[in-house]
């Protein structure tokens, strides 16, 4: 799907995001998609930590308070960091044409407000293992609303997209 057609002579950069959604912290990289150069990076404490320091406590919190609360907390952290990297680069969110997100299985479930309860119960099966390509506007990522968002698959309860992306790298 085409988002824009622009000449390369001085046109605005096409930017991408690489996002690591960790249990403790979240890191966002702003990338020039033409060269692959990292333009800016920012990290912050994952706001979900208010619900517990580890994935088990987050799952318990999701069961009590609902996954939407934890999704909002993760998105607030990510979007704040996107604002930081864009400000640092003097860029606009509409220039972000795609994003890649990796995290452990529980963090991805919580980010997308998908029920994670079975990850902590035998036989430890996640609700999802593969995801479609989302649009940033569908899941609340601060980017061009039509930007493609690729979320690394997590094949098992305790083998997430963070491990998969590390293996691919």
Structural features, described:
The structure is a single chain. This protein is α/β, with parallel strands linked by helices and 169 residues long. Helices cover 31% and strands 22% of the residues. The protein is built from five helices and six strands; from the N terminus they run βββααβαβαβα. It is elongated, with a radius of gyration of 16 Å. The protein starts with 14 loop residues before the first strand and ends with a helix.
Features:
169 residues, alpha/beta, six-stranded mixed sheet, 6 strands, 22% strand
Compact overview of the structure:
The protein is of the alpha/beta class and 169 residues long. It is 31% helix and 22% strand. Helix 1 packs across helix 2 (67-89).
Describe the biggest sheet? Answer: 6 strands, mixed
Spatial extent as radius of gyration: 16 Å
Helix-strand topology string: EEEHHEHEHEH
The backbone outline, from C-alpha atoms, is elongated
- How big a fraction of the residues is strand? 15-25%
Strand arrangement, major sheet: 3-2-1-4-6-5
The overall strand count is 6
Helix content: 25-40%
Pick out the low-confidence regions: none
Query: How many helices?
Result: 5
Structural class: alpha/beta
What is the mean pLDDT?
Answer: 91
Distance between the termini: 26 Å
